[in-house]
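Researcher: Structure for this, please.
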Amino acid sequence: MSTTLETLLERFTAPLYAGDRSGARAIVADAFEEGMSAEEILMQLVWPTMDKLQASYRADHINTGTHHMASRLLRMLADQLCLRLDRSERNGRSMLVVCSPGEPEELGAQITTDIAEAHGWTVHFAGGGVPNDEIIAWLGQLEPQVLMVYGTIPSAAPMVRQLVDLLHDVGICPKLQIICSGGVFNRAEGLAEEIGSDLFAPDPLASLKILDAHPAKRATPDQQTVGRKRRLKRTGE
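Model: Predicted structure, token format:
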């Protein structure tokens, strides 16, 4: 990490935690002055600051008000940076992005959506709190190549398990590739594999790289622990 970026990251925290919108925008402007692109600012300044903010909140180093204010300020900046992203031609691939309800999960999923769209993907962002049956309906209607599950919180992991199980049971979109990223998937090693996800990546750029590198990778039956007991029971019937 360059000294300039380290300095920007250190300076960025104070205005965020204070809710100083003009001060935070000034640091983003400084990053542009240093020659960083909008994508670099999103991934090297906003993204690590988002992770640091969540870690501080989980450790009770900041209160709920500070967390919410800083999260919303980061989202405002992400909205503005999205308008300045360099955009590639459409690549013919599409994804549906869903996440857990909550400001930090929505923020990470939104940045993931913006980055993917800038790289040529057609992206539908459903956000958090969407019931599994509605996600299934959207998948049937949109027929995307990829379902991105971003930033699940620990208490919502069983719902993701149920979604993957339902997808296998219903057999809708048999060519669909599922990738999990962010949130508890980054903190709990092997969780994405355990719930039957085809792929895992820690952040948006890594997600796009692994999707490009492994377009045909699917979870193996042994990996898909979701619903395993029920499938074994059916086999024995």
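Researcher: Any notable elements?
Model: Residues 229-237 have pLDDT under 50 and may be disordered. The CA atoms of residues 64 and 82 lie 27 Å apart.
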